Amino acid sequence: MTTTLEDRLRDAYQAAARTVRPETIRPGVQYHRAARARSTSRSQRRFRMFAPLAAAAAVVAVIGTAIAVPHLVAGSSHPATVTAPATISAAPFMAELASSQLVIQQAGTTRVTGLISPPDGGYTWDAVAAARGTTFIAAATTFSDREYTSALYEFVLSPDGKPSHLMQLRSGIPGDISALAASQDGHRIAYVTLGLSSNVPTLSVITGTATRHWTEPLAGPGSTGLVTGSLSITADGSELGFATFTIPENGGTVRAGGTMWLLPVSSAPGSATARSHKVTTGPADSSPYETILSADGQAMYVLSSPSTEPDSAHSGRTSSVTLSAYSTADGTLLRTIHTWTGIPDTATTGTMPGNAPSMTISGSQLLVWGIGGTTAYQVDLVSGAIKPVWVYSLHQNGKYVRTQSSSIAW
Amino acid sequence: MGMSFSNDPMSTGVALDTESGLSPGSAEDAIDALYREHGLGLIRFAVTLTGDQQTAEDVVQDAFLGLHRNWDQVRDPASRPAYLRTAVVNGARAVHRGRGRIKARRHLVQREPPVWSAEAAAIDGEDRRELLAAVARLPEHQREVLALKFFLDLPEAEIAQTLGIRRGTVSSRTARALTALSRQLQEHK
């Protein structure tokens, strides 16, 4: 198939546009600061005026802190608990989005066992999720008529990690899929979609031929929005874990907490938070931004950062990331598992805003990684041991370069 | 009490004017709704012109503030998205030319590298990054017409309206931009 320069341009522009997510948009920080500094009656009027605009930007302090957290790199974690690179016993293979392809890698090694190109029709891979360990679900998105359309695929790995049986499960899904999760049997698939211009993401679950939707419309200061990149599901597919942020009341720099929720999949469609059970707002004096459920749904693992300036992503400060476990039943803190400290600032690493660390889970083994890095961290949830794990990065011209490892499943 | 806004194009804020007949709530609500509907799309469009999200956000915020200032002059609701689109193009142009508030603010904070740079690690695919980097090397008027045509998929008439040029100029400018882009890509192979 011949790809014209025009088609390539459209594809490249869409890739650039999709780097902007609603939760990564700053409030009007600079305007607020300017207004406060001048403290004149005119500037006070400006401040009031700008508040609704900033509120509509759907940005919140917790996300600001998430933005502040750059990728986790080797050497940035706590030295006392990091051991040498290890072979992972939990899942034999990992599937990762890298350089437009789905990469299958033998876990715990640098061995790549397969590459899967995006489907024809201008699709790009968006996200990947593991079902049975050898069965994976992947989402791909295309752009036409000024809007995104997504499709879901399933593929199976052979015992030696070769991908096969790529099969389309669903097509014509409106919007761009930003997060994906699958039950262990692969029969229930959850995802978050976002349109090109919409800043109201939709949370959906497919069960057989039925699809159920929840959303969280933003309604100005104090209202809640879904974090588009955070979604998990229990092994039996009965409950979803997701995160929300809150627009500050003044639309600006006042901190507002992130919240972690548990949603029964049997809930009626409508408001996601109204149908959900609030689990936690994370550790005290911190901002949680990423969550994942245990397979049985009894624990929720939360990544959080200390509460600092919400716009610290742009100030180049260092930060830390803490992994904690909470009971989904009553929200009590079960355990603080690990804290990574001394993480380089975003400016020097070149990590884009919103590239907060992500998680994927396989049994008792949790994988934490940051976009742009070549190292992830395997966390043994039973012993608390942390091991650095190499993840695939595109090999170009004899060297590895950083790529957008936005989704990993194992 | 009514409201209008300073026509000073370099003003960062808004000044209340009790002479006009528009209630404060109506303008703010309308702009709030416009932001919800178009804000993300405009920031994404601005990223294709400026290369980084922070600058894009600044450009879009200024576009909305400009709309607020000129609310009385943009009475037709149907024309407001086009007004904002033009304002974003003009704002991005001002950034590239080193003028205006956004450029001034750019000195105050360290900016992100362009999304198409390898350093940013924001876009999958070296081909895409190379293509966007080549676009960034094109003259400003060519970059604008490419983004309007191939990102927003606007018809030539709307591109002409946005840029304030004739439709024939849109065609010729697009053709020249594609030729220049193709040449650049060949040279960098």
Distance between the termini of chain A: 33 Å
CATH superfamily of chain A: TolB, C-terminal domain
Radius of gyration of chain A: 20 Å
Helix content of chain A: 10-25%
The major pleated sheet of chain B works out as: none
Question: What topology, given as strand order, has the largest sheet of chain A?
Answer: 8-9-10-11-15
The biggest chain-chain interface is:
A-B, 67 and 62 residues
Distance between the amino and carboxyl termini of chain B: 63 Å
Mean pLDDT of chain A: 71
Domain count of chain A, please report it: 1
The CATH topology label of chain A is Neuraminidase
Task: Specify the oligomeric state.
Answer: heterodimer
Shape of chain B: globular
Detailed description of the structure:
- The complex is a heterodimer of chains A (410) and B (189).
- With 410 residues, chain A is mainly beta.
- Chain A has one domain (5-409): TolB, C-terminal domain (Neuraminidase, 6 Propeller), CATH 2.120.10.30.
- Helices cover 12% and strands 43% of the residues of chain A.
- Chain A has 5 helices and 27 strands.
- In chain A, the strands form 7 sheets. In chain A, strands 8-9-10-11-15 form a 5-stranded mixed β-sheet, with no helix packed on it. Chain A has a 4-stranded antiparallel β-sheet with strand order 3-2-1-27, with no helix packed on it.
- In chain A, strand 6 and strand 7 (163-174) form a beta hairpin.
- Mean pLDDT of chain A is 71; it is low at 28-89, 252-256, 309-318, 343-355 and 394-404.
- With 189 residues, chain B is mainly α.
- Chain B has 2 domains: 1-112, no CATH class; 119-189, Arc Repressor Mutant, subunit A (Orthogonal Bundle).
- Chain B contains 8 helices and no strands.
- The N and C termini of chain B lie far apart (63 Å).
- Residues 1-24 and 100-110 of chain B have low confidence and may be disordered.
- Chains A and B meet through helix 1, helix 2 and helix 3 of A and helix 1, helix 2, helix 5, helix 6 and helix 8 of B.
